[in-house]
Amino acid sequence: MTNYFPENFLWGGATAANQLEGGWDKGGKGLSVSDVYTFNSDLPKDQWTDQWHMMTYDQVNQAQDHSSNQLYPKRLGVDFYHRFKADIALFAEMGFKTYRMSIAWTRLFPKGDETEPNEAGLKFYDALFDELLKYNIIPLVSLSHYEMPLYLVTEYGGWSNRIVIDYYMQFATTVFNRYKDKVTYWIPFNEINCVKHHPYVSVGIIEENHPNIEQAKYQSAHHQFVASALATALCHQLIPDAKVGCMISYQLLVPYSCDPDDIQKTTESQRTSLFFTDVLSRGYYPSYAKRLFEEKGVTLVIEEGDLALLRAHTADFISFSYYMSSAISAHPERLESAEGNLITGGIKNPYLASSKWGWQIDPKGLRSALNQLYDRYQKPLFIAENGLGAEDVLEDGKVHDSYRIAYLSAHLSQINEALHDGVEVFGYTAWGCIDIISASTNQISKRYGFIYVDADDLGQGSYNRVKKDSFAWYKSVIQSNGNSI
Ligand code: BG6
Mind listing the pLDDT tens digit for each residue in 117-144? Predict the structure, then answer.
């Protein structure tokens, strides 16, 4: 293989605070939307993420049994809050050039609407960034990754309420000012298009409260667009060499057949995600939005100045997660559906294998994704998440995860192809570089890491860290700048 990875390629790993840190009640932290997700192994798997029904913030606090933390796996995470120094040393040992992470909003603003930040939370991230910089690992920071303050949801209605832009900007301003000398790469919102699929964790809206849910979703998205533009502007002003990127969950969609109806449906489905990068990268609502909104009965409330803001402060780079592709049919009821985190609905592609969680594995789809995004925007691309969720087995102190190596190797080879195609890709962060709690199912047993965490789905175990076989493999990939893929 001829190697096309550029010399300064940013190799690394990615996590999110709510899935990794634990310490949910330490240092003055408040409850986030993810802290109240339950896990109950007695329930059928498809009900594991059933969330508690909505109450006020204080009612939640009183009603939930805080002593049985194992019901809420994201409260424990993998105890990174206490172990981050040792974990970062392992990232450094693999040779990470970058580490994508998020800041838990509720460590800084426990309820979200306070006027002063919580100093203990700020100090935690100071120490974390210092530890990364000690090893020359460049932090790439998501401001909001499925962990908004619960209080902003229960008391304000989440992002459907425009006032949340102000609270978010207060958080962003605090963060940029405090860490301006430590962080240059920023992502205002993780997977901003996932409002489509997970409105509760993405934008904090409760479906039952909105008779026209599409209106609430797109209005919330508009508020996040405005917040992204404001954050981008402020970040550029405070940190002159900062790079601020947008981020979507990207699933390559292909027509199930050459039936023209399948082809049209695929174009429309792919647009439900590209809509978000269209707005954030080009700076305006795409022409197809008018019909989309008409058909969904959406009338956006756009304030004076909003559209000018979007135009003026577009993303510097496009980042995305990529796990799978999916086939699209105009007649899905006649066919077997694909499973998993499908933001667009999808049909099982008979040419592809699936993970245990039904995610269809398609490395070549990543090359297509990179080409499609680069053709469309001509901006640098960053692969912010990619990986295989699998059940690993710890035996005699070892984890032989050859299936993970095969998955990652195949995807990295396709990035190399895309680089050869002329696509500008400047970095790759493997998702869940250390085992963390799954976003969608709240299990730790859906593992992605190079580093095994000795804990089970009920939070029992030593939490010791064990290097999997993939650890040495990834280390050599980074060392050889992709030669040893
Ligand atoms: C992405 C999210 O959608 O997928 C992550 O940004 C998440 O937070 C990842 O963990 C993998 O999904 P899951 O459900 O397997 O954890």
Answer: 999 999 999 999 999 999 999 999 999 9
Per residue in 321-363, pLDDT (tens digit) is 999 999 999 998 878 877 777 767 789 999 999 999 999 999 9
Establish whether residue 191 lines the binding site of ligand 1, counting it when its CB lies within 6 angstroms of any ligand atom.
yes
CATH H superfamily, domain 10-479: Glycosidases (3.20.20.80)
Count, residues in the chain: 485
**Facing residues of 244 across strands?**
186
Find the mean pLDDT for residues 15-20.
Answer: 98
Map out the domains of the chain as residue ranges. 10-479
Active site residue 147: no
Tell me how far apart the alpha carbons of residues 126 and 110 are, in angstroms, rounded to a whole number. Answer: 18
Q: Is the CB of 440 under 6 A from ligand 1?
A: yes
Our answer to whether residue 191 is catalytic in this structure is yes
Atom of ligand 1 at shortest range from CA of 440:
14
Among candidate residues 21, 131, 191, 417, the one labeled active-site is: 191
Stated pTM of the model = 0.95
Pocket test for ligand 1, best of 440, 444, 445, 457 (most atoms within 8 A of CB): 440
Calpha distance 319→162 (Å, rounded):
26
* ipTM of the complex model: 0.99
Judge if the beta carbon of residue 48 lies within 6 A of ligand 1: no
The pair of structure tokens assigned to 149 is 């303050």
Average pLDDT over residues 86-105: 98
Classify residue 288 as exposed, middle or buried by CB count within 10 Å of its CB (0-12, 13-18, 19+): middle
Can you tell me the distance from the alpha carbon of 35 to that of 153, in angstroms, rounded to the nearest whole number? 13
| DSSP class per residue in 442-485 | --SSSB--SEEE---TTS-S---EEE-HHHHHHHHHHHTTTTT-
Residue of 354, 431, 447 best suited for mutating to test ligand 1, as the one with most atoms within 8 Å of CB: 431
What is the atom index within ligand 1 of the atom nearest the CA of 389?
A: 15
